[in-house]
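Thread: quick sanity check before group meeting

JM: Hey all, I'm pulling together slides for Thursday and realized we never actually wrote out the predicted structure for the chain we discussed last week. Dropping the sequence here so it's in one place. If anyone has concerns about the input, flag it before I start.
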Amino acid sequence: MKRRGLLKALAAAPAAAPLLGQQAPPANNLPRPGAPVPADATTPPAPFNRTPPAATELPKLETSTADEAGEMAPHFFTAVQFAALRKLSAVLMPAMNGAPGALEAKAAEFLDFLVSQSPQDRQALYRIGLDLLNAGGKKRYGKAFADLDDQQAGTLLGVLKEQWTYDPPADPLARFLWAAKADVRTATINSKEYAIAGVSGRRGAGMGLYWFALD
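JM (edit): ok, ran it. Output follows.
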């Protein structure tokens, strides 16, 4: 043995004796389960002498689907703007002839996400347009656009009855309404709800694609 190894062995020797005194008592000195405990029996050291706690049941949690928990909150538009967008979508694309409308297809929810990922000029077009709809509703009827009935809302959308041209209209409200009309229709007929409805003759042959609602 090398000297270094011998010195290590000697240095460890004094520490071995106290450790032996701390070892747990031999198993043969412990009473068997259910047998009477002799007076001179050795009591196991803690924590071996603790009584195991009684088993407890796991708590039962109430669960619910996402639709039952609440409606989707807008991420990009304000609450007032989003309410106006939902109303506009319902007027532009109502449910008819067995086909779901924009509300059933959650077109406004999809557009809230789509516009949030769009260029800034597109975002400004929507925000300004929705604010103009609300301002027009309050000025003419004393209500926000979302609180108007369909006939009142239709009067503020009269610009859509004008003849379409290749050049975008100069009026910001008209420019927004033309863009929103196309977007709402596209989002509706390409939705999962529209595909499930299986309305024949209303979708391009061979497309078979739809967007998924965001959770």
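AS: nice. Helices lie at 3-21, 66-69, 79-92, 107-116, 120-141, 150-156, 172-189, 192-197. The chain has eight helices and no strands.
JM: adding both to the slides.
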